[in-house]
Automatic annotation (TrEMBL):
<dbReference type="GO" id="GO:0036503">
    <property type="term" value="P:ERAD pathway"/>
</dbReference>
<feature type="disulfide bond">
    <location>
        <begin position="335"/>
        <end position="364"/>
    </location>
</feature>
<dbReference type="InterPro" id="IPR036026">
    <property type="entry name" value="Seven-hairpin_glycosidases"/>
</dbReference>
<keyword id="KW-0479">Metal-binding</keyword>
<dbReference type="InterPro" id="IPR050749">
    <property type="entry name" value="Glycosyl_Hydrolase_47"/>
</dbReference>
<keyword id="KW-1015">Disulfide bond</keyword>
<dbReference type="InterPro" id="IPR012341">
    <property type="entry name" value="6hp_glycosidase-like_sf"/>
</dbReference>
<keyword id="KW-0378">Hydrolase</keyword>
<comment type="similarity">
    <text>Belongs to the glycosyl hydrolase 47 family.</text>
</comment>
<comment type="pathway">
    <text>Protein modification; protein glycosylation.</text>
</comment>
<dbReference type="GO" id="GO:0005975">
    <property type="term" value="P:carbohydrate metabolic process"/>
</dbReference>
<feature type="signal peptide">
    <location>
        <begin position="1"/>
        <end position="19"/>
    </location>
</feature>
<keyword id="KW-0106">Calcium</keyword>
<dbReference type="GO" id="GO:0005783">
    <property type="term" value="C:endoplasmic reticulum"/>
</dbReference>
<feature type="active site">
    <location>
        <position position="412"/>
    </location>
</feature>
<feature type="active site" description="Proton donor">
    <location>
        <position position="126"/>
    </location>
</feature>
<protein>
    <recommendedName>
        <fullName>alpha-1,2-Mannosidase</fullName>
        <ecNumber>3.2.1.-</ecNumber>
    </recommendedName>
</protein>
Length: 515
């Protein structure tokens, strides 16, 4: 969740002047022709590992231990508090790919991080899903099925020690009248920015903080996150829940009350819904209330937010809402929804949710194959009354138009294909993921790594933004790899009985009931 700045949500959903690429191009010819001698899944998995190693080498040479590589200029940036975000986010992917040298470079480094100080604003949410989750996942693997990859056991113990150190530094965020945390923190003076918090930023802590409590034995971490979450599970005022289970986006930290009634499965809201069912996967005995809220949200989504574009009634998208009014607009970020419905359907034994998830997965696939690059856009719409003049033909043909053509190395579409493949065994989803990987690998590669691009509907991507996000390592390359890789206990289960559950940044945790 993805995801990932919460602020992206509502702001980008308000249609304003975006640069619209010119219409039509079909799926790139190369992708159609290639099918004749398609490589084996083992060869595909190895190709993804090669891309991971190219990205890591560029980062290690020019940016480590800073947060991100700027691949065009061979420079670095520190957008995540300068604690080495790409290194920590890459750990669980290096583990599942069994790249022992990289695993040890990362776990040698992690004990040296000082999580108690930083000069820049700290996001409780981003820090939790990337750093805390990256270390806890590494700990679960290295004390479990991949323990032979660690050269030094002390570095494994340090993953839990550093998780505790980080959580202790963050925990003052929860010292509010309601227990709903502040999200934006200043460690230097233990203050915050005073702003309201968001649905995803409050509702995407509970898996990580509960896992930390279970591993460390300090139940305070779980209590803090679950107290904040309790206001989301029992939303007030009633008007903030326009349909059962579907709630607003902004929460007053003093009162714990919602400030609006708008939202959806989009950025800013997304992983709150994602975690309702994932908590049940993590521990069905402790989190059945969360599952009940997920079922309400899922049923309301199917009943009230389902939308079929006028020129392409065969496609299914999920609309955004303000009260009970719908906006026909969505995002790359929201495309995790298909995978989440599939996971819920498998875990609850309800084919209806799996089928609905598969229809969403197919809709997001269309946003990829319609563009000049074979990569889907950041924001898209399908309101017949709002089609940009120069995308009329594109809309008639494809059933959506592009509102923001950026691609910033996001994972959600491929993530959902991964769940679709695990649930159905249909190799079509492996082919979709391979085609997307080839398109991304060809279009975003530049200089010493891979970069965000400006325009998915211009051949070549319309220019580079010179930024390699840490979730490129954590998510995109992990899902591209796992969908082709052989069976392993950490793969999403085929039958709904999971031994591991993936956080929103794709860091797998061992589930409580199997530990
Ligand atoms: C489409 O129209 C928008 C808005 O007027 C403009 O910014 C964009 O450059 C146009 N795109 C093309 C490819 O002509
Ligand atoms: C448990 O964690 C809380 C929150 O960071 C901390 O205040 C407390 O001291 C910890 N308890 C122990 C026994 O370490
Ligand atoms: C705390 O520090 C931050 C960043 O240095 C600053 O913007 C903020 O105003 C300070 N807050 C207080 C309450 O001093
Ligand atoms: C949150 O609620 C408190 C107490 O009612 C109020 O003083 C404050 O203005 C509210 N903040 C926002 C952002 O609405
Ligand atoms: C929903 O649409 C109706 C009719 O256009 C309008 O009166 C109402 O204010 C809208 N509600 C919200 C929450 O935007
Ligand atoms: C992926 O991109 C790299 C860098 O351009 C290239 O060397 C490699 O051949 C590409 N892989 C595939 C499978 O196309």
């Amino acid at each position: 969740m993805v995801r990932r700045t919460a602020a992206i949500a509502i702001a980008t959903l308000v249609p304003f002047a975006f640069a619209f690429p010119h219409s039509p191009p079909l799926a790139p010819k190369a992708l159609n022709d290639r099918r004749y001698d398609s490589p084996s899944t083992a060869e595909r998995a190895q190709a993804v590992i090669n891309t991971f190693r190219i990205s890591w080498d560029g980062y290690y040479k020019y940016a480590f231990p800073h947060d991100e590589l700027l691949p065009v200029t061979n420079d670095f940036s520190d957008s995540r508090n300068a604690w080495g975000a790409s290194a920590v986010d890459a750990l669980s992917t290096a583990l599942v790919m069994q790249q022992k040298d990289i695993v040890n470079q990362i776990i040698e480094y992690i004990p040296t991080i000082d999580y108690t100080t930083t000069a820049t604003e700290v996001s409780l949410f981003e820090t939790t899903i990337r750093y805390l989750a990256g270390m806890l996942s590494g700990y679960d693997f290295l004390t479990g099925p991949l323990s032979d990859l660690a050269e030094n056991k002390d570095n494994v113990d340090a993953l839990l020690k550093q998780s505790i150190s980080l959580a202790n530094a963050l925990s003052y965020a929860f010292e509010t009248p309601s227990g709903v945390p502040w999200n934006n923190l200043f460690f230097n003076n233990r203050s915050n920015d005073g702003s309201a918090n968001g649905l995803a930023t409050v509702g995407t802590l509970v898996l990580e903080w509960t896992r930390l409590a279970d591993l460390s034995g300090n139940t305070t971490y779980a209590s803090l996150a679950q107290k904040g979450e309790s206001y989301l599970l029992n939303p007030k005022p009633a008007s903030s829940e326009p349909w059962p289970g579907l709630v607003g986006s902004s929460i007053n930290v003093t009162t714990g009350e919602f400030l609006d009634a708008s939202g959806g499965w989009v950025g800013g809201d997304d992983s709150f819904y994602e975690y309702l069912i994932k908590m049940f996967v993590y521990d069905s005995s402790r989190f059945s209330t969360y599952k009940d809220r997920w079922v309400l949200a899922a049923d309301s989504t199917i009943a009230h937010l389902t939308s079929h574009p006028q020129p392409r009634p065969d496609l299914t998208f999920v609309a955004y809402y303000n009260g009970q009014n719908l906006s026909l607009i969505s995002q790359h970020l929201a495309c995790f929804d298909g995978g989440n419905f599939i996971l819920g359907g498998q875990v609850l034994g309800k084919q209806e949710y799996i089928d609905y998830g598969l229809s969403l997965v197919a809709g997001c696939h269309e946003t990829y194959i319609a563009t000049a690059t074979g990569i889907g856009p950041e924001v898209f719409g399908w309101d017949p009354a709002s089609v940009p003049a120069n995308q009329t033909a594109f809309f008639q043909k494809n059933g959506f138009y592009i509102l923001n053509g950026n691609y910033i190395l996001r994972p959600e579409v491929i993530e959902s294909w991964y769940y679709a493949f695990r649930a159905t065994g249909d190799t079509k989803y492996q082919d979709w993921a391979w085609d997307a990987y080839l398109a991304i690998n060809a279009t975003t590669h530049v200089g010493s790594g891979y970069s965000s691009i400006n325009d998915v509907n211009v051949a070549g991507g319309g220019g580079f933004q010179d930024f390699q996000e840490s979730f490129w390592f954590a998510e995109v390359l992990k899902y591209c790899y796992l969908i082709q890789a052989e069976e392993a206990e950490w793969q999403v289960a085929k039958d709904g009985r999971n031994s591991w559950v993936f956080n929103t940044e794709a860091h797998p945790f061992k589930v409580a009931s199997s530990s």
